[in-house]
Task: inverse folding
C-alpha cells in the first residue's frame, strides 16, 4: 500500500535555534513542504526583525526552497495597530501562551481576561491575523485544557471574525468546541492520537512521551481520533514536535515535549491505513490547513508506503518517538 | 518545638536485598524501631526458609537489636493450611499483589476473584494472619485504586474475621472504606500526604516522585491528610520507601518508587506541627499499628525537633525525596 501526499504541512512546530535548529529543521523539511513555526525562543519572537532573522536562520538550516517556514509572533497585549500592520506580511499567526504554561512561555499572558486582551485582538481581527492559543489553565494537570474552554468560548463570541486555533488539543471537551463556533479551529499532534496518560505514567514513567498538554484519557483520545481520521475540515495536523537534548529529558526534572518530526508522516499513514481511512490523510495534513489559513505552500510530493522503517536511537542529542523501534510505514526515497 | 516518639514503626517498607539492602536498611533503623518488610524480591519471598534467611540478612545489614523486621509472605493461592500454620510465627502478614501491578509483582494474582482466593483467605482468617493488598486494577492509571474498591468490599464482606490492610492508599474513595467495614485498615505514605499528580507531571516531569499508585488529585490528598493528621485509629504510617539506583530513575523508562526512609519522620513531624496536630503523630506512626497488628515492638525513643536538616543529594546510588534541599525538622543526634 502507498499514498502520495501533496504539499504536507505541519501547522505546529518547534524548531528552536542554533545547533538544535540545524539538527531538526532538515528532519521536518524532509517530510513537509512547510510548517507553522512557534515563537517561544529565549527571548521570544516579538518584533519584525526577530521574525525575519529567525526565518532567515531556518531557511539557512534547511538549505532548500521547497519548505516554507510560516512564522508566528509571541502574543503580547502591548502590540499596536501600527506594529501589527507593519509585521502582517511576515507572519501567518500570533501565538498566545498563558504565562509559564510550557517551555519558554514565561513572558506569556498572566491574566487571560478578554477585556485586557480586547484592543490587541480587535486589531488582529481587523487585520485577519489568526490567533493560535496554548489553551491550558494553571489548574490540576489533567483538568487544564478543559478548564480553558470558557476562555475559548468568550474569545469566539467576542471576536466572531477572528480565527482562533486551539493548539494541540487533547480532550473531548476541546473537540466539542469545533462544531459550536464557526471561528474555532484546532491542531492535533501525532502523539495525542496514539498515547494516553497510561503510556506516560501507567507502567514505567516515560520521559520521552511527557508533553504539554499531558496525554489524557482513552475517551479523549477516541474523540481526537474521530475528527482526525475523518479529516474534520476544522482540524489540521500540527506535530508540536519539540526537541530537547537527551540530558534534559532523562533527568531529575524532565522537560516537556515529544520529538516526532522525522516519523510523523509514516506513522500517520500507518494509523490512517489501519483504520481504512488513508484517503483522508491528505486533508488532515494539508488541504484543511490551506483552507483555514488561506495559504498556497510550495508544491511538493511525498510518497509513503507500507515498507517498515527502523527509527534511529537518536538524531544527534535528540531521542525521537519510537527510538530504536520499527514502524510499519516509511518515506519512499 | 520538639517531640519524643516512642517506638516509631514503618508498616510498609521495601528493603530490597544485597548491596541495596546494606545501603537502605540502616537508614530505616536510624529512625524506626521496626518495619513491615515487603516480600517482592526476585524471586518473591514465598516460603519459610526464604522468610528466615531474608530476615537474617536484614538483621545483619542493620547490626542492631533495636529494630524488628516484621516479615511478609508474597501471597499465592496455592498456600495450604499446613504451610501457613508452619510459617505463621515467622511472618506478620501476607502481601497480595495483582500480577504485574508494580515493581517485581509479576508472580502476583492474575484474577482477583474471591472464589479463587477463598480457600487461602479462609485459612488466613482462621489463623488470624492479616492480608495486605496492593489495591489497584489494571485500568487507567488515575482510576486504578478507585476501581479496586469493589474487590476490597467483596473481601471484607466474605471474610469478616480477616484483617485487610489497604496498602499505600491514595484516594478519597479508599479513605471512605475505613468507616464502612470493621475489618479494613490502611497504610498511608509520606509522599501521598505531600504531593499530587501536579508535582509529578504538572511542571517538569519528576521521576523521583513517580510511584505506584501514582499521586492523585488535591481532593484525594485532602482526604488522606484528614485521617492521617487526626490519627484515625485504622490508619498507620507505611512509607512505601522504595529505593532504585539513580540510573533506573533518570532513564528512558523510570522505575516506580519514592525513597523517603531517611527523612520520613522529620518531614511528618513538620507536617503535623504545621497543622497544630503534633500530638497525633505518636498514634499515626506507632500506636495504631501496635493495636491493629497486636505487636509489641522494641522500645525506642526518637527525638524530633524543628532544627533544619540538609537532605543529602544521594545515599550511595539512591536519590531521596528532597535531595539537596533543606527540611524544617531533624532527628536529634
Result:
Amino acid at each position: 500500500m502507498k499514498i502520495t501526499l501533496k504539499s504536507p504541512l505541519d501547522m505546529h512546530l518547534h524548531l528552536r535555534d542554533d545547533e538544535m535548529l540545524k539538527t531538526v529543521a532538515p528532519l521536518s523539511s524532509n517530510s513537509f513542504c512547510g510548517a507553522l513555526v512557534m515563537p517561544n525562543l529565549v527571548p521570544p519572537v516579538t518584533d519584525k526583525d526577530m521574525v525575519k532573522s529567525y526565518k532567515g536562520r531556518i531557511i539557512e538550516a534547511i538549505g532548500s526552497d521547497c519548505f516554507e517556514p510560516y512564522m508566528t509572533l509571541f502574543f503580547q497585549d502591548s502590540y499596536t495597530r501600527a506594529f501589527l500592520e507593519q509585521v502582517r506580511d511576515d507572519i501567518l499567526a500570533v501565538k498566545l501562551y498563558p504565562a509559564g504554561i510550557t517551555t519558554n512561555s514565561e513572558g506569556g499572558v498572566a491574566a487571560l481576561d478578554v477585556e485586557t486582551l480586547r484592543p490587541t485582538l480587535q486589531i488582529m481581527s481587523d487585520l485577519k491575523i489568526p490567533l493560535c492559543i496554548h489553551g491550558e489553565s494553571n489548574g490540576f494537570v489533567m483538568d487544564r485544557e478543559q478548564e480553558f474552554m470558557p476562555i475559548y468560548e468568550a474569545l469566539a463570541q467576542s471576536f466572531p471574525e477572528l480565527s482562533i486555533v486551539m493548539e494541540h488539543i487533547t480532550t473531548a471537551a476541546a473537540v466539542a468546541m469545533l462544531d459550536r463556533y464557526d471561528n474555532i479551529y484546532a491542531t492535533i499532534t501525532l502523539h495525542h492520537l496514539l498515547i494516553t496518560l497510561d503510556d506516560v505514567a501507567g507502567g514505567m514513567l516515560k520521559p520521552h512521551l511527557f508533553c504539554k498538554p499531558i496525554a489524557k484519557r482513552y475517551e479523549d483520545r477516541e474523540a481526537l481520533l474521530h475528527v482526525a481520521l475523518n479529516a474534520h475540515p476544522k482540524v489540521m495536523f500540527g506535530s508540536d514536535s519539540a526537541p530537547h537534548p537527551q540530558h534534559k529529558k532523562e533527568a531529575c526534572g524532565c522537560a516537556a515535549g515529544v520529538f516526532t518530526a522525522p516519523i510523523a508522516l509514516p506513522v500517520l499513514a500507518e494509523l490512517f491505513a489501519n483504520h481504512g481511512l488513508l484517503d483522508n490523510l491528505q486533508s488532515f495534513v494539508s488541504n484543511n490547513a490551506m483552507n483555514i489559513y488561506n495559504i498556497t505552500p510550495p508544491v511538493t510530493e511525498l510518497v509513503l508506503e507500507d515498507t517498515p522503517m527502523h527509527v534511529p536511537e537518536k538524531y544527534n542529542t535528540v531521542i525521537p518517538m519510537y527510538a530504536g523501534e520499527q514502524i510499519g510505514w516509511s518515506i519512499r526515497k
Notes: The domain at 2-331 of chain A is CATH 3.20.20.140 (TIM Barrel). The interface with chain B takes residues 140-142, 196-198, 200-208, 210, 214, 217-218, 250-256, 319, 323 of chain A (CB under 8 Å).
